[in-house]
Amino acid sequence: MERAELLRLDRAHVWHPCTQEKDHELLPPIPIARGEGVWLIDVDGKRYLDGVSSWWVNLFGHNHPRLNRALIEQAGKVSHHIFAGFTHEPAVELAANLCAKAPGNLSKVFFADNGSSAIEAALKMSFQYWQQCGQPHKSRFLSLSEAYHGETLGALSVGGCELYRDVYRPILLEGFQAQGPDCFRCPYGLRRDDCAAECFASLEALAEAHHQEIAAIIVEPLIQAAAGMRIYPPIYLKKLRQLCDRLHIHYIADEIAVGFGRTGKMFANEHAGVAPDLLCLSKGITGGYLPLSVVLTTEEIYQAFYDDFPTLKAFLHSHSYTGNALACALAVEVQKIFTEEGILAQLPAKMAQFDAAAARFTALDHVGEFRRCGMVAAIEMVKRKEGRIGYPWQERRGYQVYQQALLRGALLRPLGNVIYFMPPLTISTVELDLLLDIAYDALRDATSP
Ligand SMILES: *Cc1c(COP(=O)(O)O)cnc(C)c1O
Asked: Which of 7, 158, 244, 427 has the most other CB atoms within 10 Å of its CB?
């Protein structure tokens, strides 16, 4: 299809995600023809370095030979079949593999088909657990301001990004929201490298006041991603684990964005040496090929649902594509690639490359902070460094950086005033240098008055 015809039909019939469609009048969507490693290539052959792993899903690049092969091989056997009453090798192998690698003693895997669905399942599991363990008052969830756990109503209810949530408030579940960590504008005037997560006090106070009503506390470990890659220290998670133990509250870890190596370790909770009661994973799980998500949980939670059928204790939750065989086969291959190609061991050199670039960025007039956690780095743009005054959102500085970067051949999709890098883990040092250079130029131009 010709570019013009493709865009005409897109305009006529397609509604894109998280987009003001009117923006497409000036900047139409870019029609991609194929991918190659970290590159997306449009129908005219223009190349874009995928600096955000296509919304945080891609781990090892596009059009990956091993993942392609795994997909085709599985398609030649069976692509999908009902997962109630039936099972298959890729799902079993994946479940065993994830339980072996996950922190703590998470030993059971429930399958769903996207991140939000995993959150819904985890919330329902926690709620039902307490119903079936003689604590029916534990029916609410505690979450953090600026949190992001997905867009379905349950997930949105525990979210804290007002931009995504405000309009739906009348139809959301009621819960408790604590003040989340904000290290860039730390209210205690401390630094994330050597503080003791003093800001944990907000969550602690709420949990202590309402623990009899609280089923679970849900957080994004180490990075509140959609909030603008807000990075906070592992000690926060240590305190959280202790608090949950003390008050008999489940800890739900949403590692949908930060799992699978993004923080430099397989799972973010490893940095704190703690394990959640429910662990939600998705995004990178299939290397960015197909939708799949899982909730890992403990034997103890599983056992609260395990009984004779007439007790009606089962977890009667399902999605049509639960345990999709193609997706599971990809996820198994992803785990093999991690091990056989030593992916995690290659990351420190690239993290150092980010750190080496930090000073260059922070020297710019409108960069308030350059922060990094593992292979995720973020730049906080400010109108004025003094007082850390942000740009008014109406100026859409981030969107300007996005446009500038596209012209120069990189995909950087900012979150408000934050430009971030979350490239495929396999990005080469040459490609990473290029990405940083493009970001620097784009940022300089978008912030020069
Ligand atoms: C993306 C994301 C989700 C939602 O996943 P979807 O697959 O988009 O529904 C939930 N939590 C976090 C932390 C995420 O980054």
From this structure: 158
Nearest by Cα to 411 from 157, 35, 8, 114: 35
Pocket test for ligand 1, best of 283, 285, 295, 420 (most atoms within 8 A of CB): 283
Q: What separation in Å is there between the alpha carbon of 424 and the centre of ligand 1? A: 17
Q: Hey, what CATH class is 31-60+344-447 in?
A: alpha beta
Ligand 1 binding pocket includes 148 (Cβ within 6 Å): yes
**Closest residue by CA, ligand 1 atom 12:** 149
Residue 381: φ, ψ to 5°: -80, 140
Whether 220 lines ligand 1, by a CB cut-off of 6 Å, is yes
Q: What pTM does this model have?
A: 0.98
Cα of 77 vs centre of ligand 1, distance in Å, is: 30
In DSSP terms, 108 is beta-bridged to 297
The CATH class of the 69-340 domain is alpha beta
Q: Is the CB of 275 under 6 A from ligand 1?
A: no
User: Nearest to residue 53, comparing CAs of 294, 258, 234?
Assistant: 258
In terms of C-beta density within 10 A (0-12 exposed, 13-18 middle, 19 or more buried), how is residue 4 classed?
exposed
Kindly report the protein residue whose alpha carbon is nearest to atom 8 of ligand 1.
Answer: 115
Instruction: Summarize pLDDT for 6-57 with one digit per residue, the tens.
Output: 999 999 999 999 999 999 999 999 999 999 999 999 999 999 999 999 999 9
Task: Tokens 């072996």: give the residue.
Answer: 100
Our answer on whether the CB atom of 225 is closer than 6 Å to any ligand 1 atom is yes
Instruction: Spell out where 270-427 has E strands.
Output: 278-281, 293-298, 367-373, 376-381, 410-411, 418-421
Q: Per-domain residue ranges for the chain? A: 31-60+344-447, 69-340
Ranges of residues in the chain with a pLDDT under 70 are: none
If one residue of 143, 149, 157, 278 were mutated to test the ligand 1 pocket, choosing by the most ligand atoms within 8 A of its CB, it would be 149
